[in-house]
Batch of 3 targets.
Target 1
Amino acid sequence: MHTLSFGTQCKNIFKYACKNPVLSALVTILAVGCVAAPQIDDTNLLQTYIEAGPLLDIVESRGGLHCRIFHPRAWLEPSDEPARRQQHPLVIWGNGTYTSPASYRNLLQHWASHGMIVVAAMTPNAGRGVEMRDCLNYMLDQQDNTDSPFYQRVNADRIGVAGHSQGGGGAIMLGRDSRINTVVAIQPYVLGERHNPQAASNQTGPLLLLSGQEDFTASADTNQRPVFDSANVPVFWANLRGATHLAPMSTGGSYRGPMTGWLRWKLLDDTGAARLFVGADCVLCQDERWLINVR
């Protein structure tokens, strides 16, 4: 359910005060509070998540045979104080059909720069979510492995899963796992035999569902609409005008800022990022490039 912003509430107060002599006496006092309310620069807010985060020199490491891990290079250097290491949330990634993490490397490095350990499954068919789950299990094992550069760096209580196309469907499949806090499903393809159509109704955390208006490979009506309608959790569904199925690849395109903001909100308690999604006057709700549905 949408909530009114502070500014909208003020406007409503003034409207009714003009019609009610009893309330009109309070207008002057209320006006002071409304004018003093802080104004949020929505344009700069979104740009915050489009730009790189504070962690620098992000590299890619092998995680066993089938996972690729994006993290700061400094973590590979020996440390004498492992007990003081900061723990970071995990984001498990699923590729689109017949692609690899290299097809999304810039985006995955970007998320890592914002304080998340990003782990991509090396599979061209991520629709079942099985390989993504294997990478999740691998990283949780590394958390307890004293010989691993990821020892005591993993926050096992903050885990997100994300994916594009078939990988988006795989993200929804893995979203049934009780360890998952949130899912980002980018143009998920859910019509294939690898996908269980009941998966959306068994999620364990809120869902960011992303579509492209010009996506004819995993069209919104046939692939994302059923997910939105059957999900058992809160869903923010954003359909980008003019976007094709390839728009999210490499850098994440126009999806980059909203996805990064969502992950920071849900996994790092970034309350500023919530402004992108919360309320009838949310940043994306006011952006004409996006068609928004919330439930």
Target 2
Amino acid sequence: MKFRLLSLTALGLLTACQSQPPVDPALGKLTQAHLGLMRQQADELAGELRQLDETSRAYCAGEQPLATVQQQWRDAFAAWTAHQGQSGGPLDAAGLSYAFQLWPDKKDTTGRQLARQLNQPGPLKGASITLGAVEHLLYEDLSQTQRCTLLPRVNEQLVQNGERLQMAWYNPSDYEQQLEQMAIQGGDSVLLVQILGQLAHRFDRIEKKLDLPLNTVDHPRPLFAEAWRSEQSLHFVRTSLQSLEREYQDGGIRAYLQQKHDTTLITELDEAFADTLNHLPEGDSLTHWLRGDNYAALLRFKLSFDRLGSKLKLRLPDALGISLGFNATDGD
């Protein structure tokens, strides 16, 4: 990522003296709205992680009940869902892609690492310093002493990583400069591919959250859900969808369409988001909806969700005259 950024910068310097077409003002507004929202979300995550650290320390000092810490973890994880699926930005550049979550955790790596830490304390690493590790400590059948052996250390590292991500978003010489060079060298299409590609990539992450536990009606896989220990998996599907809608609405894309006078597509997207959220089953637990006849409600939700994906990944790029290829949405 750093090599790519340096290459873009060098190319920009070599071509600065050449005549370049003016950047579309509407595209400039889109870029600033995109950066503004991403920075705001980084602020929110960093703030929630600091609050989680403070609340956990109060719990360990006997000043707060466990339920208060669990609620703060829920808030911190909800803030993290706004960053899930980001690709080619500060999360990758700062090496933080797996600093907040290891998922899917098919072999319960988190649980095994934490069990070893409780029995043989040593340096924390990998899955033992993620939000999933905090979930394990707060929701497994552990004593306060056991929880507090690790909680302060795990949260301290999470706070540091949250602040690193925050600084990476605010550093104008990194991602912001990359976007500027894209606009100079490639014009509208390159920059739109970058921003819409992230939106599509985040949709793919939510789809994976649903598809892995959904599997088939005869063989659902509840333990493949994102937060099965706390029974909050469906809640975080909801917060993910809400943050995706926020990125579309407040991240500049909707305003860009308005400036292009594409009211038809705006209506289609607004209705697709509303329909998807309207058909998301109630409650916090995904496991509940994987049982028996409840499974049909998830399938009905998936129909609306797939229609939303078609609007975001096909209809929207096509209307703006761009194509989101494999590289725009592959991987996690």
Target 3
Amino acid sequence: MGWWHPERTRGAQRRFRRATPLAGFVVLALALSGCSTDTQWERFGMPEITSKQGEHILHLWQGAWIAALVTGVVTWALIIGVPLWFRRRSDDEVPVQTRYNLPIEIFYTIFPVIMVIAFFSQTVRVQNLALEHDDNPDVVVTVVGQKWQWTFNQPYEGEYVFVSGTGEDIPDLVIPVDKTIEFQLRSPDVIHNFGIPAFAMRMDVVPGNENSYQVTPTEIGKYAGKCYELCGAYHSRMLFNVKVVSEADYEAYLADLAKNPDNVAEQPVEGGKYAKQPINDEGEHE
């Protein structure tokens, strides 16, 4: 018996065409159902976000994952499904031979370009929202990253109160809830990076470059902060805590800090005790 070439039946084609978009919609619906922020699975690994700026970044992150998952499912469905659907069903059968499919080839060429444009435009939009500056922030904190800790300066009654950490003492950055906080970033030595995961924001602290960004905390609580730049031998010590408190507690904190002369200065302390210490040939403070 000779080999025979089966013909595609219209019924099979119609069922296949109907099943493909249906499967895509099912996958998309399942993915979109995870857009809440209750768990890390629903946030796709992101920590719980407690700032207005961070919410925009979280939504971009979720959207990117959803798009990637849908694209992956469709791609794998085509890779695995086509050989199974058009497989040889008997020894004397030759499956339908298709040398090319122009619509699919056009789709595979155009769709990635559309995705890149969409990702780029959304990233720029979210970046502009996250880095938008209010001309009159409620609180301005001068943040100084130095080897190997942080100094936080805040204005109070015409002067500045500050806390500075050490390798053994992790400092607390206290800020009020629901207020616009501007972090002005300074460094007297090397590049550091000031980041707070719960706010989904971080930025390089570059010597000679006055970087800054603003956040609006939305929940009272205690959060971790760290340096995200490998800045040297004791980079791992550059940790700090962020305490978001009520406005009344914040004012009480500043008043209590101002009672200690060691925590008061006429100008922001830019570098703590390291600012006045020269750096030797090995890049270390003397």
